[in-house]
């Protein structure tokens, strides 16, 4: 019986996510979900299911090998910075400069906004640099992971110069005559989830209190992370603050240069076209490799590290990235099992959406929900808007109308939101890795915050679709966010008064 492109294709990700939430154990949950997908695809033949599992795993690992190489190179760079003492120097400087929890939280989010080129780079770099500072001010690793996650994908999806902008611009169908980059720029003021998440995070850091599972975790685990700081941040080396800042700045510049290079800037392509056509993963590899060369020349002549210590960082950096690479490999495999070549979950979603194409005014809200669900189930935001944007173009026609722009913005918002709440999402995994936080602790503490903004965004897209006005959607979203903040603050004050 052929189960592809049917409702049964939702079963593998549902199994993986449910097991991960119940058991708090990600590796086995993902593997069981993958095997369930293999069984569905291969007619419940166990041997063939295992064969399909490793066939997909090999294929997905090959497709994403540059991301794995980038993670290893970045892990090596992180190890070098730590061994040099530059992280400790920065932590000492930041401790003297930053005053209190609010300052530490704002400094973390500012660094996340500054590193807008790519969310992978963002997650790992921000966590590594700011972990000593947030530990010092008793900001738990779960809260740090949320700050990282809330300034990674939401910032990248509204940054014109980023790997995400290139991915969105290339998601239009081949027959389209629209300029993908221009369409992306028009979605920025309508990308409710990204904009409201950043606004909510700014308030949350200023208010300096939490609610729900995050508040409970902050109460119970602040001292655990302080103890972990004493254990993990004792390093040698005579590195200065600029020994940390310079490699990061060079990495950003070289990654952007890599995007321009792989996008054909040397062959005469314009800057915008180069960013739209770049190979972001190859760009990150090139940028990180040449940053290692720069760091070698920065450290060794000044005897910040010996040659032997420099080489030790290679194995240490690789080891540090193994958990993230393993989870990513399993998440990519699950996504592959659900892809068009196998169970075709996208085909099922397409049939559902096409069946609703007559309800034009509700399309932004419908696409937001479907995008959220698809990204949650598959753990990939890029794959989600890659499936849904061509459908939106088919529904509204090949012209950048207000409804098309709003619907594409809804696809992007839903993809980022689903990415946030999914335990098998790559950026969620890397935010945990960057903060050195237990992955399921990050997922469970972040989810209520993400779902609150998701509900507000849904209301905004619903009203925006009915009125046919993206500005109305944004204004309503901001108004509802302010209302939610007032209610949360009142409840918090009432609880404090009782104590």
Report on this structure:
It contains 24 helices and no strands. By secondary structure, the protein is mainly α.
Average pLDDT over all residues: 83
Termini separation (Å)?
61 Å
Oligomer: single chain
Percentage of residues assigned to helices: over 70%
The number of E-state strands comes to: 0
Beta-strand content bin:
under 5%
Structural class: mainly alpha
Order of helices and strands: HHHHHHHHHHHHHHHHHHHHHHHH
Radius of gyration: 22 Å
Q: What's the shape? A: globular
Number of contiguous helices = 24
What does the largest sheet look like? Answer: none
Unreliably modeled segments? 229-234
Layout of helices and strands:
Blueprint: H1 11-23, H2 26-41, H3 46-63, H4 65-84, H5 86-97, H6 100-114, H7 119-136, H8 141-150, H9 153-156, H10 163-169, H11 180-187, H12 192-207, H13 213-232, H14 242-262, H15 271-277, H16 280-299, H17 307-337, H18 345-354, H19 363-378, H20 381-396, H21 402-421, H22 426-435, H23 439-467, H24 470-498
Summed up:
The chain is mostly helical and 499 residues long. The protein is built from 24 helices and no strands. About 1% of the residues have low confidence.
């Amino acid at each position: 019986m052929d189960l592809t492109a049917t409702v049964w294709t939702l079963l593998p990700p549902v199994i993986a996510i449910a097991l991960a939430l119940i058991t708090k154990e990600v590796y086995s949950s993902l593997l069981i979900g993958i095997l369930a997908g293999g069984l569905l695809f291969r007619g419940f033949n166990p041997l063939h299911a295992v064969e399909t599992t490793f066939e997909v795993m090999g294929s997905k690992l090959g497709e994403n090998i540059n991301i794995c190489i980038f993670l290893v190179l970045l892990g090596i760079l992180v190890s070098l910075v730590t061994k040099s003492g530059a992280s400790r120097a920065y932590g000492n400087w930041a401790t003297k400069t930053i005053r209190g929890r609010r300052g530490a939280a704002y400094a973390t989010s500012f660094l996340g906004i500054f590193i807008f080129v790519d969310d992978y780079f963002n997650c790992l770099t921000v966590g590594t640099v700011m972990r000593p500072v947030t530990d010092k001010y008793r900001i738990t690793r779960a809260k740090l992971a949320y700050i990282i996650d809330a300034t990674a994908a939401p910032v990248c999806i509204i940054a014109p110069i980023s790997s995400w902008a290139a991915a969105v611009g290339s998601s239009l169908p081949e027959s389209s005559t629209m300029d993908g980059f221009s369409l992306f720029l028009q979605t920025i003021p309508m990308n409710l989830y990204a904009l409201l998440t950043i606004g909510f995070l700014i308030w949350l850091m200023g208010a300096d209190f939490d609610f729900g599972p995050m508040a409970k975790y902050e109460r119970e685990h602040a001292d655990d992370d302080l103890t972990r700081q004493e254990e993990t941040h004792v390093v040698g080396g005579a590195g200065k603050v600029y020994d940390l800042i310079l490699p990061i700045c060079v990495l950003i510049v070289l990654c952007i240069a890599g995007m321009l290079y792989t996008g054909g800037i040397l062959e005469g392509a314009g800057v915008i076209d180069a960013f739209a056509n770049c190979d972001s993963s190859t760009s990150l590899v090139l940028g990180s490799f040449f940053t290692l060369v720069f760091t070698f020349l920065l450290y060794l002549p000044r005897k910040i590290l010996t040659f032997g210590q420099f080489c030790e960082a290679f194995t240490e950096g690789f080891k540090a990235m193994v958990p993230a690479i393993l989870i990513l490999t399993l998440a990519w495999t699950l996504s592959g099992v659900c892809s068009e070549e196998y169970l075709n979950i996208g085909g099922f979603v397409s049939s559902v959406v096409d069946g609703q194409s007559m309800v034009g005014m509700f399309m932004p809200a419908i696409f937001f929900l479907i995008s959220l669900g698809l990204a949650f189930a598959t753990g990939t935001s890029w794959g989600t808007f890659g499936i849904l944007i061509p459908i939106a173009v088919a529904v509204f026609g090949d012209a950048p109308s207000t409804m098309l722009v709003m619907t594409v913005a809804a696809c992007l918002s839903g993809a980022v939101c689903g990415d946030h709440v999914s335990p098998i999402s790559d950026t969620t995994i890397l935010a945990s890795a960057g903060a050195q936080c237990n992955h399921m602790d990050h997922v469970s503490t972040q989810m209520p915050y993400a779902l609150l903004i998701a509900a507000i965004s849904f209301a905004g897209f619903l009203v925006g679709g009915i009125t046919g006005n993206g500005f109305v959607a944004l204004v309503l979203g901001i108004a509802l966010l302010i209302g939610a903040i007032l209610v949360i603050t009142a409840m918090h004050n009432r609880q404090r008064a009782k104590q």
